[in-house]
Write a structure and sequence with these properties.
The chain is α+β, with helices and mostly antiparallel strands and about 375 residues long. It folds into 2 domains: about 5-70 and about 100-175 and about 270-370, FAD/NAD(P)-binding domain (3-Layer(bba) Sandwich); about 180-265, 2-Layer Sandwich (D-Amino Acid Oxidase, Chain A, domain 2), CATH 3.30.9. It is built from 9 helices and 20 strands. The chain has helices spanning about 15-25, 50-60, 60-70, 105-115, 160-165, 230-240, 300-315, 320-350, 360-370; strands at about 5-10, 30-35, 45-50, 70, 75-80, 85-90, 100-105, 120-125, 130-135, 140, 145-150, 150-155, 175-185, 195-200, 200-210, 215-220, 265-270, 275-280, 280-285, 290. The strands form 4 sheets. It has an 8-stranded mixed beta sheet with strand order 6-5-14-15-16-13-17-20. A 6-stranded mixed beta sheet has the order 8-2-1-12-19-18. The chain has a 3-stranded antiparallel beta sheet with strand order 3-7-4. Strand 5 (about 75-80) and strand 6 form a beta hairpin. Helix 1 (about 15-25) packs parallel to helix 4, helix 1 runs parallel beside helix 7 (about 300-315) and helix 2 runs parallel beside helix 7 (about 300-315). The longest helix has about 35 residues, at about 320-350. The protein is globular and about 60 Å long. It starts with 5 loop residues before the first strand and ends in a 5-residue tail after the last helix. About 45% of the residues are buried. Bound molecules: flavin-adenine dinucleotide. The site of flavin-adenine dinucleotide (FAD) has 30 residues, from helix 1, strand 2, strand 3 and helix 7. Flavin-adenine dinucleotide binds near residues 12, 157, 265 and 286.
């Protein structure tokens, strides 16, 4: 057991709330601070593969996610006309399904409630103004003028992390050339699992969120300048989806009507070189390994980071040993996902231009990478 008694987690997203729960469960008095004055999570869903559920199970939250979400099996990969060509997914793990689809808002509520129930102190609308990061403790000055001394600070403040800038330097995520469009719908009865339809210049996913709801994602290449004005979101998304003749996809075209319901986002990637810590500050989640969602793994990796941290607080003798072990257990696994996701994104774009290199086998890369994630963390 390390000497860590008091920790600060910066960022109340999926990774930060998970880290708060994992640390508190490990006996560490933990505060989570969140920049936003209140949570304002956007209203589409997220894919939770079995390895993410396995990590949530350690936090005591997998069952709650499945009750409030929608467990499903492997994703059916189909042509744009609806013909199934393959199926993919992480290996099933014990009683856990291959996937759970869940609304992001509900997931946040589950994590927030879990944090509160475990005794995590949550402070909203506040961040770090300055850090004095010594070998034995971190003195923190907050933006409201208050101060605190912590044995460990965990930066989980996302892809544009301020803690990363303060502690590790100036790293920027890279735009990959692709964007994702998402939209929530009532769930049709025939949506029995997750589906991905492969089009000529895009792909469409249909993902269950609850028994009554689902969301669609569309991945497209939006070129050098991916910004799209709100007035164009609905017509452009409709045009992308209209390419698909699959009977499961067609009915959605006319249901895309609300520009506020279109969650559009250019895709960025970032993998920081090891180590992801300095003295007593450790970075986790998208702050150090932001992956594009080709394998649906970003949030799962952030939750796994939290679980490994919680375990090491209890098993490592010293803080340097903990941090060193953390990197050993996390770096290669996160790199595997970030690299494979980037390759898949590049191959998709080449395929849409009719230039997929010979030997580029997306199904094989997905299967191999997702299969490897069945290994214990
Ligand atoms: C289009 C898209 C689809 C995706 N789909 C999936 C999927 O299906 N499955 C999956 O597993 N992953 C998916 N992901 C990835 C997933 O969303 C991220 O990996 C995950 O949200 C990372 O969590 P995080 O806590 O590290 O960062 P974030 O979710 O970014 O949370 C960071 C938090 O820190 C707060 N914050 C920021 N700055 C500060 C500061 N200075 N001080 C205090 N707080 C701060 C933010 O307000 C936020 O609450 C997807 C990502 C994208 C872009």
């Amino acid at each position: 057991m390390t000497s860590i008694k008091k920790a600060l987690v910066v960022g109340g997203g999926i990774g930060g709330l998970s880290a708060g729960i994992a640390l508190q469960k490990a006996g560490v008095d933990t505060e989570v601070i969140e920049l936003q004055p209140e949570f304002n999570v956007y209203g589409v869903g997220i894919i939770q593969p079995s390895n993410a559920l396995r990590a949530l199970d350690v936090l005591g939250l997998a069952d709650r996610c499945m009750e409030r979400g929608s467990p499903y099996g492997p994703v059916k990969m189909c042509t744009s006309t609806g013909f199934q060509v393959a199926q993919v997914g992480t290996p099933p793990m014990g009683r856990l399904p291959v996937h759970n689809g869940i609304s992001r808002r509900i997931l946040h509520q589950v994590l927030h409630d879990g944090a509160v129930a475990n005794g995590v102190a949550l402070r909203m609308g506040i961040t770090v103004a300055a850090l004095d990061n010594g070998p034995d403790w971190v003195n923190v000055t907050f933006t409201d003028g208050s101060t605190g001394r912590y044995d460990l600070v965990v930066g989980s403040d996302g892809v544009y992390s301020k803690i990363r800038l303060l502690v590790l330097g100036d790293y920027k995520p890279r735009y990959t050339g692709q964007s994702v469009w998402r939209y929530a719908f009532p769930r049709p009865a025939e949506l029995d699992t997750g589906y991905i339809f492969l089009g000529r210049q895009s792909k469409v996913g249909l993902i269950p969120m609850t028994a009554e709801t689902m969301y669609m994602f569309v991945v497209s290449a939006e070129g050098e300048d991916p910004k799209i004005p709100e007035s164009e979101l609905v017509p452009r998304l409709k045009a992308l989806v209209a390419e698909y003749e699959a009977p499961m996809v067609r009915p959605f075209v006319n249901q895309i009507t609300d520009p506020k319901g279109v969650i559009y986002r250019p895709l960025e990637t970032l993998l920081l070189p090891a180590p992801w810590y300095k003295n007593r500050v450790l970075l986790i989640g998208d702050a150090v390994h932001a992956t594009i969602p080709q394998l649906g793994q970003g949030a799962g990796l952030a939750i796994e980071d939290a679980v490994v941290l919680g375990e090491l607080v209890q098993s490592a003798d010293t803080v340097p040993t903990l941090l060193n072990e953390f990197m050993k257990r996390r770096y290669d696994r996160c790199k595997l996902v970030v690299d494979a996701s980037n390759t898949l994104g590049e191959w998709e774009q080449l395929e849409w231009q009719g230039q997929l290199p010979e030997g580029a086998n997306m199904g094989a890369l997905m299967g191999k990478t997702l299969g490897a994630l069945g290994a214990p963390i």
